[in-house]
Fold:
Amino acid sequence: MSFFVRALAAAASVFLLSLPLAAQSPSPPQSSPEPSQAVVTLPDLKSRLDRFSSAEGRVVGDVPIAAYEFLPKMYAALGYRLAWTNEASVAALKDAIKRSWEDGLTASDFHDQIVAAHAPSTATDTRAIETDIILSDALVRLLYQLFFGKVSPNGLDPHWNFSQPMLSDDPVKIISSAIAAGEIAALVERARVDHPAYKALKATLQSYTQYDVAGGWPIIPAGAPIKPGGRDPRILALRQRLAVTGELQDDASAASDVLDENLAAALASFQKFHGLDDDGALGPKTLAELNVTPAQRIDQVRVNLERARWTLRALGDDMVIVNIAGFYLRVVLDKKPVWATRVIVGRPYTKTPIFKGDMKHVVLNPDWTVPRSIVKGELFAKASTDPTYLAANNYVLTSSSGRVDPNTVNWSQWTASTFPYGIVQSPGPANALGLVKFLFPNKYSVYLHDTPGRGLFGKSGRSFSHGCIRVEDPMKLAEIVLGNRVGWDRAKIDATVKTGKLTQVNLPKPLPVHLLYWTVDPQPDGSARFYQDVYGRDGPLLKAINADFKPTVR
Structure:
């Protein structure tokens, strides 16, 4: 079975649960069929579908057919009758394609002009057959993109390991029955992600589309930074800009060129929702965010709608979610968010990878086996020039036979690249991992952990680590995880930490951890937070979304 057929199988099974009984039947309904559907079968239709076996035969009327393996099976289930002679079904398909922009999709991917021009008839000539095939391909393309997304995440990130649900092996029956029953609108709706975050992203897309249609907002000219209380002619444009998106309301000083207290508060609110330091001052980073156009925001939301289609169906009842672009961690238990905290993630040149894992262990008073890259890039130089450095920072040297006395090492005979020893930092308050780490085994050696350095959590952009994720309140996270999984309370955790002994607690039921990357984060009140694209992931994905549609294996 081709991937395209298997992919549609997953979508179809979701539809089956909620379609009317007629659409669930194994064959087209027998009651009140249209005359042409009841008596006319088309050998020419089958002959045209048979030509899909060759690459040149997969172009119909100059239109490339994506579902060339699926459509022959679908039409066979329909008895080789035309699928699009029902006016209501055609109208539903036209409407779904016209409104595909609401999901951040591109109508031209679904043969929109041909579909829009189609008028149902009983004609069975070559042109009618070809148009019918094109409309069927349009439907399949739409269902595919709504369910799986347009772009293969593996094509952008070869390490992608989020699973796609495959719930049925018979999409042909489901989709052909829905076509025969005239349930096109229901079929399309069931393909769409049914998740609050997805719906909120769609609402955000609607809002910024309205801003765009209304003419957007004024561009604020470049200039020197303006602190609260400062005066500048550009303040008038700032007032207009914040009034458009609602941060500034009931402005009694609309004609003032002073960054007064009310305006500074409105600007601070804008900064807070755009991943900036909320100091109420108009600096270069804030100016750049203010001057992002509605069209650019629309593209940013479209990128994140695609990410939502990749991931939201795979989320379970319990999980830890890290939004790398948003620098926060959230714990979800029984499908309800129960707690969140700030995190520090990898620098742009030591990126935290996007993947999922299962937390299986919590380690109190952990030691730290220093990654080879850090030994080579940082610690070797310090230890080789200062004989006391390792002991002063609670490090020990190790080899395959055990611990090594650094005083016995002839440092001058080694370079950072040839140094043969490992370096481990013993447990303690000064340990780089702090007092607790959370392990979800993965090939990247990435985990969640405490840190003795607390100052960086106050920064708005928190990409400072070597790739692991530092948690602002790790002991609270330990309390939640261990309380939920093994029944430990905070007193027991604190008592164990106080012993100073390395203690590993195994979780009898693993807790899924999802490391995700969202640059738009819809909020429960209908607003949205926009984050900096710190790893430069939005641009390549937007380019792929806007390219021609080519379904690929994931």
Summary: The first helix runs from residue 3 to 16. Confidence is low (pLDDT under 50) at residues 1-39. The radius of gyration is 29 Å. Residues 310-523 form a domain with the L,D-transpeptidase catalytic domain-like fold (CATH 2.40.440.10).
